[in-house]
Amino acid sequence: MAKSNKEVTGARAASSAAKILTSSKSSRLEKRAAGSALTQRPDHSKKSNAEVTHKRAASAAGKVLASSKSSRTAKSAAASALAQSPNKR
Q: Cα separation of 50 and 5, whole Å?
């Protein structure tokens, strides 16, 4: 059974994620988190957005947020990806 999440990536976070993906200076972890954030961008042709952040992408996003070397743009995309990770309770 697939996990669902009602959170989606907003326009600002999606723009940040796109900048990270196109930058040659971005690390692999930053790009992984940014890619995850972009996959959760709303698709208006679908009724719902069933994508959630995979645990590898969530781990990468956490490392991006914890890093003092990551840019503000990268942290924005990483935070969006983490917001869409399934809650474990």
A: 6
Q: Could you tell me the pTM of the whole model?
A: 0.66
Query: Which residue matches tokens 């930058």?
Result: 23
For residue 53 the two structure tokens come to 């952040």
* pLDDT digit string, tens, across residues 31-75: 998 988 888 877 655 555 556 777 888 888 899 999 999 999 999
Give the burial string for 57-85 (b: 16+ CB within 10 Å, else e): bbbbbbbbbeeeebbebbbbbbbbbbbbb
Q: Are 26 and 47 in contact (CB under 8 A)?
A: no
Domain spans of the chain, in order of start: 11-39+53-83
> H/E element holding 75?
helix 72-83
Instruction: Name, in order, each residue with C-beta under 8 angstroms of 69's C-beta and a sequence gap of 6 or more.
Output: none
